[in-house]
Amino acid sequence: MADEGSLEHTPTWVVASVCTVIVAISLAVERFLHYLGKFLRHKGQKALSSALQKIKEELMLLGFISLLLTVSQGLITNICVSKMVSSRMLPCKEETLTKTSNEAGNETCAKEGEVPLLSLEALHELHIFIFVLAIVHVVFCATTMVLGGAKIRRWKHWEIAIQNENENPDHHKKFVIDRAGHFWRRAAVVSWTIAFVKQFYSSVSKSDYRALRAGFISKHCRSNPKFDFHKYMMRTLEDDFKKVVGISWYLWLFVVIFLLLNVDGWHTYFWLSFLPLILLVIVGAKLEHIITKIAQEAAEGNSNERGIPADPHVRPSDDHFWFGEPAIVLYLIHFIIFQNSFEIAFFFWILTTYGFDSCIMESIQYFIPRLVMGVLIQVLCSYSTLPLYTLVTQVCTTYTSSFLFNAILVKQGCTAGTSLVPGILIGFLGIFLGFKATYRD
Fold first, then answer.
1. Chain centre distance of CA 254
2. How confident is the model at residue 282, as a pLDDT?
3. Is the CB of residue 294 less than 8 Å from the CB of residue 395?
4. DSSP alpha helices (H): ranges in 117-168?
5. Residue ranges, the chain, pLDDT below 70
6. DSSP 8-state class, residue 309
7. Please, are residues 436 and 428 in contact by the beta-carbon 8 Å criterion?
8. Which residues pair with 116 in a beta bridge?
9. Which residues, including other chains, have CB under 8 Å from residue 217's CB and lie 6 or more apart?
10. Which positions ≥6 away from 378 have C-beta within 8 Å?
11. Are 217 and 233 in contact (CB under 8 A)?
12. Which residues, 6+ apart, have CB-to-CB distance to 304 below 8 Å?
């Protein structure tokens, strides 16, 4: 006999109405993302357009995972395991789950004295978690870009003022004096302590911006001292953003490990919430310390009788980064942003699925600090750490920019890397773009 809750016993107008609403919402979202991509390309925001495409790919992946769960739910729920196996590593105490477990079991497993590997109710809740994770991750990525862009736009008036000023060695001397003007600041403990504190307020000063800008121009754009460094940094921020919005395989591995270790009494959810905060302050302190090391190197030049360097210019170098690889910092920022969004998504999933009284939610002294840290991490990473990374990496020796950005540098009379072959290719790209623009005109 057919189940009375199946489509065979559901009015056609109900089926048609529900399908209409779902399809309409899906098409509206798809069209919005499509036109947003066209708008970004029209405005020349190639990096943001690529980031949007990456977000769409991640949403498609999450949707495919959800689809696999739906299609395979019959197979999964028919897999039976012993009650002893199913009682291992529970996120809640077993006595609180006895009634629910009995209600969720199917007849096939019940006849054999076993329980299903995963019940239909658990699969439904897993679908909700994937949906919440997708929404929170997109919102956090958008927040990261908005706050990071807002911070760098605050430096615009510095760029205008510097371009209108005449070159003055005293400007660079101020950078050295502020960052490395006292001998006691050269001690490792003191310099790291100052770098740790400085990331929380006034992480970049005008003298820092001026010095790092001069280092970039001396390395990559010496023929054009009026180069719009600020505009280029905004493009670089967009390029960095494109790299941190995706969900890489190692991030999915972290999700699996987290779900595995979320065992009752371990408070894994609480302790892991400290991980992104610890990594974030380490990364922020490292970036601040790099600026200090650059100033100390500049101070080691030819000094006058007062100990102030006569030629305090920045010398670009990768040696200050971990293992000489600036990309490691970006990988850590990527992990921090995702892990924080995962933490908040997990919280809202528990709240919407089980409520505040859930044993997974734990007591108020556990989830309130998690929420506070989540907001703090998002603001600090977006408004301070990511813009700081974008600025500091402009004075790297092995400058790594995208192919399009290198073409922009060539167009403005700058060099675009240290390799001859990419330079030649970029030159041909510039010629091609020039012919294309002429042909269109």
1. 15
2. 93
3. yes
4. 120-153, 156-164
5. 1-6, 45-47, 94-108, 167-172, 181-184, 301-313, 362, 397-441
6. B
7. no
8. 80
9. 224, 225, 227, 229
10. 140, 143, 144, 337, 340
11. no
12. 310
The per-residue DSSP string of 380-392 comes to HIIIIIHHHHHHH
Question: What is the bridge-based pairing of β-strands 115-116 and 80-81?
Answer: antiparallel
Q: What was the pLDDT predicted at 283?
A: 93
Beta strand ranges found along 287-393 (DSSP E)? none
* Number of Cβ within a 10 Å radius of residue 432: 11
- 3-state secondary structure string across 183-246: HHHHCHHHHHHHHHHHCCCCCCCHHHHHHHHHHHHHHHCCCCCCCCHHHHHHHHHHHHHHHHCC
Contact 363, 274 (CB under 8 A): no
Q: Tell me the HSE value of 46 on the side-chain side, using a 13 A CA sphere.
A: 7
Question: With a threshold of 0.85, does the pTM exceed it?
Answer: no
Whether the CB-CB separation of 133 and 61 falls below 8 Å is answered with no
Q: Using one digit for the tens of pLDDT, what is the confidence trace for 67-120?
A: 888 888 778 878 887 877 777 777 777 655 544 444 455 666 777 777 787 888
CA distance 374 to 344: 7
| DSSP label at residue 385 | I
Does an H or E element contain 29, and which? Answer: helix 12-42
Name residue, tokens 């789950």.
97
**Contact criterion met (CB below 8 Å) for 149 and 361:** no
- In 10 A of CB 115, how many CB atoms? 21
CA dihedral 40, 251, 93, 367 (to 10 degrees): -50
- Interatomic CA distance for residues 366 and 343, integer angstroms: 13
Neighbours of 229 (CB within 10 A): 23
Q: Are 316 and 396 in contact (CB under 8 A)?
A: yes
One-letter amino acid of 420: L
Question: Do residues 326 and 393 make contact, with C-beta atoms less than 8 angstroms apart?
Answer: yes
pLDDT of residue 304: 47
How many angstroms separate the first and last alpha carbons of the chain?
Answer: 72
- Contact criterion met (CB below 8 Å) for 381 and 341: no
